[in-house]
Amino acid sequence: MSVTRRSLLAAGGIAFTGALGALFTGRAGAARAMRGYGPLLPDPRGLLDLPAGFSYRVLSRAGDQLRSGEGPVPANCDGMAAFAAGDGGGEGGVRLVRNHENRTTAALRVPAVPGLTYDPAALGGCTVLELDGAGRVTAERVALAGTAVNCAGGRTPWNTWLSCEETEDRAGTSGYTRDHGFVFEVDPADPHRSGAVPLTAMGRFAHEAVAVDPERGVVYETEDAFVQPFGLFYRFLPRRPLGGPGSLRAGGTLEALRVPGVPDLSAVDEIGARLPARWVPVPDPGAASVPIRLQDFGPGGITHAQKLEGCYWGDGGVHFVSSYARGSEGSAADHHGQVWFYDPRSGLLRLDVLFGPATDVRLPGDSPDNICLAPDGGLMVCEDGGGAQYVFGVTRGGEVYPVARNAEDIGAAGAPEWGEFAGVTFSPDGRTLYVNAYTPGTTFAVTGPWH
């Protein structure tokens, strides 16, 4: 990562040129200074740099003891969502459900709890934090265990969490006793009610994130594949749409996106471009012998994209991210990331944001990952790149501005080795932003003059 580029960000006045477009408007972005909430101020504690008027609390850290007594807080904090708890909602009662992207080498596994464990040999899963009206953690417990590489996911309209395994490992691989690569439903209020049941009809692949259409019940899914053949963008048509907790176990139909004439989404670089979306049935959702992205989708093939990541419902459609594209790795183009919007009413796919090209180090943002809708209707974007990491905001007018930065002092002796940001989400009342530092696993609550 270029220090020159980072110095622009640190200065607070983020000037850039190139192909970063105006979110939601389809107009090309012009060079401008990004203001947002102002420059980020160095944190005396060396944890999280924020704009003036903002503050944070550390809610949970990997290695501390879970309040349930089940064991240490697991490592690799990733996707997350906030749910209202009790009568108050907002900070008057919040449940945070949090993924742990643990592989077989993880130092701090999700403790295997009876009734919540899918495969005792797998170290990933979810934990739930409960906050009271003052934002204090009152409970912290395991909600799902024995799953692998739980990356992101998404919330359902009936207030459960869909946790996604970003792996395709089979039983017998890495010591696993069961196949992996599935989605699991987690009930934050009562994890034992949801248990540890794989939603096999939703496909077996390297899942990243999901978003549920609250009117039609369709579930959209991203596949995080960074080597060829790259991943696909899916939709799942449930047999029991909007059927409530457990309804997705009834199965349904899995389809993959085909954009006619576009085998690789990275080739599209025109902000506001609208492309016709077609949906093709997946031949074998369980990938019994062939990974889905390698299967035969018939004449016209299927549309791939490198590293499909965050996925979030808002504005009547689904926003999803292609984290980056590298021509040297087989993509049709080079960029630092794209944000797409699919409108199910029109059946059109639209390119809203392009971070890039990858050769231009003057641009803010590198490898966008988890996303969520902000209270102002724009997006919050977690960065997963090199060096210091950022949470960016993107307004409806196309302005990109820094919201938070891990306080790694690049090049300083003894500086903490922070990982990416992940799991950005807002409290139900929009007053608190929650976000994880992937490593060392830390969950923050950020308050301030959000608007």
Number of domains: 1
Question: Strand fraction band?
Answer: 35-45%
* Biggest sheet layout: 6 strands, antiparallel
* Average pLDDT number: 87
Provide the CATH topology. Answer: Neuraminidase
Query: Using only CA atoms, what is the Rg?
Result: 20 Å
Task: State the separation between the terminal residues, measured CA to CA.
Answer: 31 Å
Global outline: globular
Q: What is the CATH first-level class name?
A: Mainly Beta
CATH architecture: 6 Propeller
Helix content: under 10%
CATH homology superfamily:
TolB, C-terminal domain
Residue ranges: pLDDT <50 for 5 or more in a row? 1-34, 409-415
- Strand count: 29
- How many helical stretches? 2
Structural class: mainly beta
Side by side, the strands of the main sheet go 3-4-26-25-24-23
How would you characterize the overall build of this protein?
This protein is mostly beta strands. The chain has one domain: 6 Propeller (Neuraminidase), CATH 2.120.10. It is built from two helices and 29 strands. The longest helix is centred in the first third of the chain and has 8 residues. The chain is globular, with a radius of gyration of 20 Å.
Concise overview:
With 451 residues, this protein is an all-beta fold. The chain has helices at residues 3-10, 191-194, and strands at 14-16, 32-34, 40-41, 48-51, 55-61, 77-89, 92-100, 124-131, 137-147, 150-155, 161-165, 183-186, 207-212, 219-223, 233-238, 252-258, 274-276, 278-281, 308-314, 317-322, 337-343, 348-355, 368-373, 379-383, 390-394, 400-406, 421-426, 432-437, 442-447.
